[in-house]
């Protein structure tokens, strides 16, 4: 008989490309996983994987079955969530995805207030690359994603929450005067430090660099906002940092000055997204309202 567990093993192999890695992710022995996948193939009467010494690849029919299996596993996860509590109550454990450029500087005060408001709610926070997290949301591996727009998906509900200003920062001894609005001429050829290009913030930094004639420093991709902070404070260049980071106790502006720039209107739009068919949609909408209220207060 076909089981959800067998489908979960197949999807995990598809994601990892390896029986050994899939077994570790699924927390089972490799023989058990292999046996279950072979049983699935026998039950369906089709070869789903091409096995080799270097890993495993899906066959054409295997790819089609994995796409359906992802939807089935997502639906099963939603059924469990629905059984844990009514759709408009904040109960159970929610897997919340967010980006490291936002979560640590927004969620700390919000989670504490959410816990007081809904003591039976548990948030499992997972940080990652925004585009990858939206994909994980569609696959059912995450319940809700809080992050920068754009977030797109035909199967997703996306609710814009607030706009967060972005600021150009420099070391305290940088020659540009923070009290005088700098023109484009003052910024031309200035090195702009940024994150891994997969981050939305890095793409915005590239747009700002082009607009003001700055140059992206390719040898200094930061791994976090904190690493950008440290590199800027040491005089390696300028950087784009969000308001919530600069205002937070975790981040802050120690060793930095915020530059005033003529015509500066840089910001990012933050949204929350969940699967449109999720039975927890009403609960996610309540969380969205709370996040929006708290964020606007923090930015006021």
Q: Your description of this structure?
A:
- The protein has 300 residues and is α/β, with parallel strands linked by helices.
- The protein folds into three domains: 4-76, Arc Repressor Mutant, subunit A (Orthogonal Bundle); 83-162 and 269-299, D-Maltodextrin-Binding Protein, domain 2 (3-Layer(aba) Sandwich); 163-267, Periplasmic binding protein-like II (D-Maltodextrin-Binding Protein, domain 2, 3-Layer(aba) Sandwich).
- 45% of the residues lie in helices and 22% in strands.
- The chain has eleven helices and eleven strands.
- Strands 3, 4, 5, 6, 7, 8, 9, 10 and 11 form a nine-stranded mixed sheet that branches. Strands 1-2 form a two-stranded antiparallel sheet.
- Helix 8 links the parallel strand 7 (191-193) and strand 8 (215-216).
- The model has no long low-confidence stretch (mean pLDDT 87).
Topology:
Elements: H1 4-16, H2 19-26, H3 30-44, E1 49-52, E2 55-58, H4 60-84, E3 92-98, H5 103-117, E4 121-127, H6 130-139, E5 144-148, E6 156-171, H7 184-187, E7 191-193, H8 200-212, E8 215-216, H9 225-233, E9 238-242, H10 243-247, E10 256-258, E11 267-275, H11 281-299
Parallel strand pairs: 3-4, 3-5, 7-8, 7-9
Antiparallel strand pairs: 1-2, 5-11, 6-9, 6-10, 6-11
């Amino acid at each position: 008989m076909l089981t959800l567990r067998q489908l979960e093993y197949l999807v995990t192999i598809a994601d990892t490309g390896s029986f050994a890695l899939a077994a570790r992710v699924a927390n089972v022995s490799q023989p058990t996983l292999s046996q279950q996948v072979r049983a699935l193939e026998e039950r369906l009467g089709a070869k789903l994987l091409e096995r080799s010494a270097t890993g495993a690849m899906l066959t054409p029919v295997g790819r089609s079955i994995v796409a359906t299996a992802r939807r089935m596993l997502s639906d099963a996860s939603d059924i469990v969530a629905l059984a844990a509590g009514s759709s408009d109550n904040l109960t159970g454990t929610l897997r919340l995805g967010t980006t490291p450029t936002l979560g640590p500087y927004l969620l700390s005060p919000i989670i504490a207030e959410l816990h007081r408001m809904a003591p039976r709610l548990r948030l499992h926070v997972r940080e990652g690359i925004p585009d990858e997290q939206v994909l994980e949301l569609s696959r059912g591996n995450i319940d809700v994603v809080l992050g920068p727009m754009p977030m797109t998906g035909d199967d997703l509900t996306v609710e814009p929450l607030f706009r967060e200003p972005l600021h150009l920062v420099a070391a305290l001894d940088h020659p540009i005067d923070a009290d005088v609005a700098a023109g484009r001429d003052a910024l031309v050829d200035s090195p702009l430090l940024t994150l891994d290009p997969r981050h939305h913030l890095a793409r915005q930094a590239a747009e700002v660099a082009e607009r003001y004639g700055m140059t992206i420093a390719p040898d200094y991709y930061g791994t976090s906002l904190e690493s950008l902070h440290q590199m800027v404070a040491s005089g390696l260049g300028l950087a784009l940092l969000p308001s919530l980071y600069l205002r937070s106790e975790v981040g802050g502006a120690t060793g930095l000055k915020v530059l005033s720039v003529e015509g500066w209107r840089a910001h990012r739009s933050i949204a929350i997204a969940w699967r449109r068919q999720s039975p927890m949609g009403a609960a996610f909408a309540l969380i969205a309202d709370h996040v929006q209220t708290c964020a606007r207060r923090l930015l006021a």
